[in-house]
Amino acid sequence: MTHHHGIDYVELTVTDLHAAERFYTEAFGWHVTRYGPGYSGLRGPGGEGTEIGGLALGERPRPGGPFVLLYSEDLDASAEAVREAGGAVVRGPYEFPGGRRFHFTDPAGNELGVWSSR
Length: 118
Prior knowledge:
It is a single chain. It contains two helices and eight strands, in the order E-H-E-E-E-E-H-E-E-E. The protein is globular, with a radius of gyration of 14 Å. Strand 2 (31-36) and strand 3 (39-43) form a beta hairpin. The protein has a single domain (10-117), classed as 2,3-Dihydroxybiphenyl 1,2-Dioxygenase, domain 1 (Roll). By secondary structure, it is an alpha/beta fold. Helices cover 19% and strands 41% of the residues.
């Protein structure tokens, strides 16, 4: 369900569409819908519901692009999945008042975060 002025869709620019699809599938279990040679839609784990975002093929990620924060029930396992899928944990995991989180970069250089409640 969408909400007025709520986050509805997040699009990431990637330099290698196949590598990005593989990364997000392996690291987080997301489902990919390929719409053509330059764009793929993303659905969360289970592949049901509306698309949550997309991967757009480009020359490089947008500077200062959106910072996306994902939720995890097991933060340490998520950090390991990022590393195993070819990403890099660039900050953390660290404590913050609401729980713990880490930041990572995907193979195209997009930086995202993952958090977990206590």
